[in-house]
Amino acid sequence: MEFEFIKPAEIEKRSFEIITEELGERFFPPEIEPVIKRVIHTSADFDYADNLVFSEGAVQRAIAAIKNGAHIVTDTSMVQAGINKKTLAQFGGEVHCFIADAAVAAEAKQRGVTRSTVSMEYAAKLDVPLLFAIGNAPTALIELARLVEAGRLEPELIIGVPVGFVNVVESKELIMRSGAPYIVARGRKGGSNIAAAIVNALLYQMVHREGF
Amino acid sequence: MEFEFIKPAEIEKRSFEIITEELGERFFPPEIEPVIKRVIHTSADFDYADNLVFSEGAVQRAIAAIKNGAHIVTDTSMVQAGINKKTLAQFGGEVHCFIADAAVAAEAKQRGVTRSTVSMEYAAKLDVPLLFAIGNAPTALIELARLVEAGRLEPELIIGVPVGFVNVVESKELIMRSGAPYIVARGRKGGSNIAAAIVNALLYQMVHREGF
A95-96 and A71-74: which strand pairing? Predict the structure, then answer.
């Protein structure tokens, strides 16, 4: 068994070179390309080169918002764990996740809705510009679309990448028609890791991490 | 846009029915089937029906170990976040992740190795039966194979599912030849979400969660 003994710091760079090579002649707008490549890096799944869709100017607006101290809301603790919080903190940002709050659970039970639904309502009350990174719960996306359409929320970005087989595809289409800026993985695929990778791809563009 | 208004509790059951339907006539041994289905549920990626490989008796041994209070070691905080720790705690188990320890970082820097390598050495010193869930770091797998081959570690299971393009494929093959019981996602695919899903699939078999 032969291992290439290359430094850990170089592994990521090398990985992106392989991804670039395998993507071949495909063209992506320059602000979108690092997002697509980081998602493929996180999943080894080239389907994302086709699945990921962006509203016009979504990446630029999100980066400007983070630069101005926007916070990030996630639907699960896994997304929260995956985001590079140190880099986000350089710009004054924090990550919020309300899914495990006892008050959220109690209210969800009482109203007969999901904890994800309630946790999005809680997040909408935060008094700072917000980006949403949703990797798991279609009901979180459905609630966000409702809040946006009711004029109760103006997010800087909605990352809509839940994974699954029931209501997932439809919830993503709903976000794309809500009027909010979005990055969505169309279809069934996505996940907490994908949501975190998209946030990190934005952050790494801002700090000019080497190589990509 | 039509949503199926079904209870959140039923969504998972329904999802597994869809997965079962789409897998068609494929046969899997009964203890392996729930693992494969939960990984597909987590990723919407049917490649895992082919990628996942199990050493003989791996699932049964892992379940017996958890039942006797084995602990779980992860390579990242995302895997740790994704594991159902409440269910694990019913059997006396805990999840350990040393990657963010200051002492690990200091030692890795001094020795010129990865933090993942050092964190596996720390884990090997724990005085309880251990399962390893590795979703990110090939160097964690390389170190585990080394410890096993040197007789310094006898894990109850190694879940080897890092994702990526450099050294990933090879590190998984190394685990499969180490002599340790394993569940491995052959090839490039995997991730923190996959590692957590495999642990949860074991746990849910133990508590007879409904439907799968």
Answer: parallel
CA proximity to A165, closest of B42, B71, B96, B82 = B42
Residues A52 and A35 sit within 8 Å (Cβ to Cβ): yes
A135 has pLDDT over 90: yes
Q: Which of B78, B164, B171 is facing A82, going by the closest CB pair?
A: B78
Extended beta strands in chain B, E state: 52-54, 71-74, 95-96, 130-134, 157-160, 182-185
A170 vs B15: CB contact, 8 Å cut-off?
Answer: no
Q: What is the DSSP letter of A2?
A: P
Residue B204 to residue B196: CA distance in whole angstroms:
12
Amino acid occupying residue A176: M
Of A186, A206, A142, nearest to B5 by C-alpha is A142
Q: Which two tokens stand for residue B69?
A: 């209070």
Chain segment B69-127, per-residue pLDDT in tens = 999 999 999 999 999 999 999 999 999 999 999 999 999 999 999 999 999 999 999 99
Query: Which tokens belong to B129?
Result: 């039966």
DSSP H stretches of helix in A83-167: 85-89, 102-111, 115-124, 138-149
**Closest approach of chain A CAs to the CA of B209, in angstroms?**
19
Give B20→chain A minimum CA distance, Å.
12
**For B8-57, what is each residue's pLDDT tens digit?**
678 889 999 999 999 999 999 999 999 999 999 999 999 999 999 999 99
Residues A199 and A83 sit within 8 Å (Cβ to Cβ):
yes
Geometric angle at alpha carbon B190, from A134 and A168, rounded to 5°: 30
d(CA B172, CA B161) in angstroms, rounded, equals 7
ipTM, interface predicted TM-score of the complex: 0.87
Q: What is the rounded average pLDDT of the residues B118-141?
A: 96
Chain A residues near residue B14 by CB distance under 8 angstroms: 165-166
Give how far Cα B167 sits from Cα of A2, A9, A10, A96, B77, Å. Answer: 9, 13, 12, 34, 21
pLDDT tens digits, A40-96: 999 999 999 999 999 999 999 999 999 999 999 999 999 999 999 999 999 999 999
Taking CA B144 as the corner, what is the angle to CA B146 and CA B99, rounded to the nearest 5 degrees? 130
What is the mean pLDDT of the segment spanning B59-77? Answer: 97
